[in-house]
């Protein structure tokens, strides 16, 4: 039998251990929860060193519990929802988006594998998504109906706090069959993301700016990655990453940007907490990679 208290106690200890003292406890705060590369793992992993971990039901239960504590919270995903289990072969991503919607996701982005059912397959699956899918560096001239379903950015407004969200995707070449992304083009994300960041900062006046990135954390100079993106595009507070399936215990900081990624297959839920400082600056005040496992007492 599962001991819920032991499970939550473990999570609490892991989270509190990474907390930093805050100067102004009463300032507006927000919790970002996030996944990446869930790859149709709707059930816990059946084998391997992470056997028993993950599962959309367990993820949804933890998110529900954290939401019930009150406070401002966003649940986000960095792409590659599709491909990896028989659930994808059967439902082509529709079930993933349906269950993510039920779990309360607020926004997601497109990974390379999210094109594995082709443009029409992606459009069919997106009918089940009640949350926006964000991307600002793909072009849609040859796939305008899909383009209409994808937002370049969005803003979520909380009491005393505005969060700007956008997304960037990895180059298709070598990763996606040409016929599966027919009509969708890729641009280096630096210029289009820079334009979106300026819009979100200067016009929308967001307090916290979050990029959902499926570029990958570090390609060692071979391609644009999250580390370079943070250096090349000023004004990003948070990059929630994916694609490289990188297990990180805490975010890495590049200049003023916090970059985090929590493995793959939904075995962890990332958590980052921010507060607004006296000048409106985002102050990181805690982070954790929460393992999605029931601990036995
Ligand atoms: Zn990927």
Short summary:
The chain is 26% helix and 24% strand.
Beta-strand proportion: 15-25%
The ligands found in this model are: zinc ion
| Mean pLDDT level | 92
What is the helix fraction of residues, given as a range?
Answer: 25-40%
Instruction: Tally the helices.
Output: 8
Model regions low in confidence, pLDDT < 50 over at least 5 residues: 1-14, 16-24
The string of secondary-structure elements, in order, is HEHEHHEHEEHEEEEHEHEEEEE
Shape from CA axes?
globular
Strand line-up across the major sheet: 7-8-10-11-13-12
Structural class: alpha/beta
Terminal CA distance reads 8 Å
| Corresponding CATH superfamily | Metallo-dependent phosphatases
| CATH architectural label | 4-Layer Sandwich
- Largest sheet properties: 6 strands, mixed
Q: Specify the oligomeric state.
A: single chain
Total discrete domains: 1
Radius of gyration from CA coordinates:
18 Å
Textual characterization of the structure:
The protein is α/β, with parallel strands linked by helices and 297 residues long. Helix content is 26%, strand content 24%. The chain has a single domain (4-19, 28-291), classed as Metallo-dependent phosphatases (Purple Acid Phosphatase, chain A, domain 2), CATH 3.60.21.10. The protein contains eight helices and 15 strands. The strands form four sheets. It has a six-stranded mixed beta sheet, covered by helices on one side. It has a four-stranded mixed beta sheet with strand order 2-1-14-15, covered by helices on one side. The protein has a three-stranded parallel beta sheet with strand order 3-4-6, with no helix packed on it. Helix 2 (56-68) packs parallel to helix 4. The longest helix is centred in the first third of the chain and has 14 residues, at 4-17. Bound molecules: zinc ion. Residues 80, 111-113, 214, 243 line the site of zinc ion.
């Amino acid at each position: 039998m599962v001991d819920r208290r032991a499970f939550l106690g473990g999570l609490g200890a892991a989270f509190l251990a990474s907390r930093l003292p805050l100067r102004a406890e009463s300032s507006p705060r927000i919790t970002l929860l996030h996944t990446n590369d869930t790859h149709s793992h709707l059930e816990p992993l059946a084998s391997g060193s992470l056997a028993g971990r993950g599962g959309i039901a367990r993820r949804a239960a933890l998110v529900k519990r954290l939401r019930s504590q009150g406070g401002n919270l966003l649940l986000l995903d960095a792409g590659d929802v599709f491909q990896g289990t028989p659930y994808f072969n059967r439902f082509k991503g529709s079930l993933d988006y349906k269950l993510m919607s039920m779990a309360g996701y607020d926004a997601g982005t497109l990974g390379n594998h999210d094109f594995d059912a082709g443009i029409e397959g992606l459009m069919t699956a997106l009918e089940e998504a009640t949350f926006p899918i964000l991307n600002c560096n793909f072009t849609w001239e040859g796939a305008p109906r899909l383009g209409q379903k994808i937002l370049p950015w969005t803003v979520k407004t909380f009491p005393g706090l505005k969060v700007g969200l956008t997304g960037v995707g990895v180059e298709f070449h070598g990763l996606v069959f040409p016929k599966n992304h027919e009509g969708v083009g890729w641009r280096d994300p630096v210029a289009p993301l820079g334009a979106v960041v300026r819009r979100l900062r200067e016009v929308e006046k967001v307090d916290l700016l979050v990029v959902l990135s499926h570029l990958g954390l570090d390609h060692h100079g071979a391609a644009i990655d999250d580390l370079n993106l943070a250096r090349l595009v000023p004004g990003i507070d948070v990059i929630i990453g994916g694609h490289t399936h990188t297990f990180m215990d805490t975010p890495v900081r590049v200049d003023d940007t916090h970059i985090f990624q929590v493995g793959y297959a939904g075995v962890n839920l990332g958590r980052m907490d921010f507060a607004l400082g006296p000048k409106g600056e985002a102050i990181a005040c805690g982070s954790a990679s929460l393992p999605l496992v029931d601990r036995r007492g």
